[in-house]
């Protein structure tokens, strides 16, 4: 009897060890995608902690309707510190993410705009399409852009760090830049796209020194702003969105390089990373405010000039 039961136990021992080995690398946090049965429509059902993704009524991204913008004279100019910082550029399997180094001594502050607090830059996310007609999360008048770059910060006056602020009131700011196809790229964006071969697979990361976050910004003081959520699970409704009223440029070659990135690791590359965007969510009567004063942009008796001040997709070159 004894030899039999020890053999039996031995088999179970191996079985349990295999189960643990197989299951540890797959955490809840990884269990979502941008398509199929783990895609955006199901995020709120996959994990009970992500319920806001399905139930929330102040979700992001949204479609921006140029004719529905509300001019708000109290909106301040947006401020972003201009000094450079070190960080890590990674392929997370969901996005291309640049994160500032931990415990940086000179944080890049984000303030002004619609913000009542000072925020501290934490990371940048890049969303992009498999072809030029799609890729951005926010759309303008129903039009998508080939990519969108989102600069995230956390409220450093109320909270200790980004992960803490994610689920707290007034926790997060996201400054969004829509990327338009052009012949000449934004120079700072090139810092990312030059190195993509080093982060081809999910989980790969590389150091980036002296990155200038503010260098990414287009030359405009005009923006649109609304209260929404993060666009990835858990979809916390703690994000103040600021969408700048001019795109920055990305070249065909840079988009091509982005489209070579894969979600999985070298052994199991899975699908390309491209098309990593959440579709627009209903506004549910939220106002979208702007600091563009339509009335001072052109003489009132010359209505044809007013046409040019609306944010239009595909209209800069
Ligand atoms: C910061 O620390 C966390 C946890 O120790 C680590 O996972 C992360 O990769 C670090 N980030 C950077 C940018 O070094
Ligand atoms: C950014 O904010 C911190 C406090 O969070 C402050 O110590 C620092 O001086 C600010 N940086 C700049 C460049 O103003
Ligand atoms: C963030 O701050 C919270 C609250 O102070 C703390 O419990 C947590 O350990 C911090 N997380 C990181 C990654 O530093």
From TrEMBL:
Keyword flag Signal: yes
Native source organism of the sequence: Temnothorax curvispinosus
Gene name in the database record: LOC112457955
Descriptive protein name: Carbonic anhydrase-related protein 10
Matches recorded under InterPro entries: Alpha_CARP_X/XI (IPR041878), CA_dom (IPR001148), CA_dom_sf (IPR036398), Carbonic_anhydrase_a-class (IPR023561)
Alpha-carbonic anhydrase domain ranges (all copies): 30-292
Alphabetized CDD domains for the sequence: alpha_CARP_X_XI_like
Keyword terms of this UniProt record: Signal
Domain of life from the UniProt record: Eukaryota
Family affiliation: Belongs to the alpha-carbonic anhydrase family.
Biological process annotations from GO: one-carbon metabolic process
Extent of the signal sequence: 1-28
Pfam families xref list: Carb_anhydrase
């Amino acid at each position: 009897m004894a030899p039999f039961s020890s053999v039996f136990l031995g088999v179970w021992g191996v079985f349990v060890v295999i189960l643990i080995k197989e299951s540890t690398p797959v955490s809840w946090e990884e269990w979502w995608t941008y398509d199929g049965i783990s895609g955006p429509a199901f995020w709120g059902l996959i994990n009970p902690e992500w319920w806001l993704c399905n139930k929330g009524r102040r979700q992001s991204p949204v479609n921006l309707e140029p004719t529905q913008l509300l001019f708000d004279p109290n909106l301040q100019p947006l401020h972003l510190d201009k000094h450079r910082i070190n960080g890590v550029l990674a392929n997370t399997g969901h996005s291309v993410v640049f994160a500032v180094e931990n415990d940086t001594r000179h944080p890049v502050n984000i303030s002004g705009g619609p913000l009542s607090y000072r925020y501290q830059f934490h990371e940048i996310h890049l969303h992009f399409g498999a072809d030029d007609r799609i890729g951005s999360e926010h759309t303008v008048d129903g039009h998508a852009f080939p990519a969108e770059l989102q600069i995230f910060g956390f409220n450093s006056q109320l909270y200790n760090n980004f992960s803490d602020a994610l689920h707290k009131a007034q926790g997060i700011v996201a400054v969004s830049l829509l990327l338009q196809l052009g012949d000449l790229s934004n120079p700072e964006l090139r810092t990312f796209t030059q190195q993509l071969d080093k982060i081809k697979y999910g989980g790969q990361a590389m150091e980036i020194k002296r990155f200038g976050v503010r260098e990414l910004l287009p030359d405009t003081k005009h923006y649109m702003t609304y209260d929404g959520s993060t666009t990835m699970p858990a979809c916390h409704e703690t994000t103040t969105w600021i969408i700048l009223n001019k795109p920055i440029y990305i070249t065909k070659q840079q988009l091509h390089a982005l489209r070579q990135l894969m979600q999985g690791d070298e052994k199991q590359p899975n699908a390309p990373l491209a098309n990593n965007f959440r579709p627009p969510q209903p506004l549910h009567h939220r106002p979208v405010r702007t600091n563009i004063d339509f009335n001072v942009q052109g003489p009132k008796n010359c209505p044809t000039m007013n046409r040019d001040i609306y944010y239009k997709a595909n209209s800069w070159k």
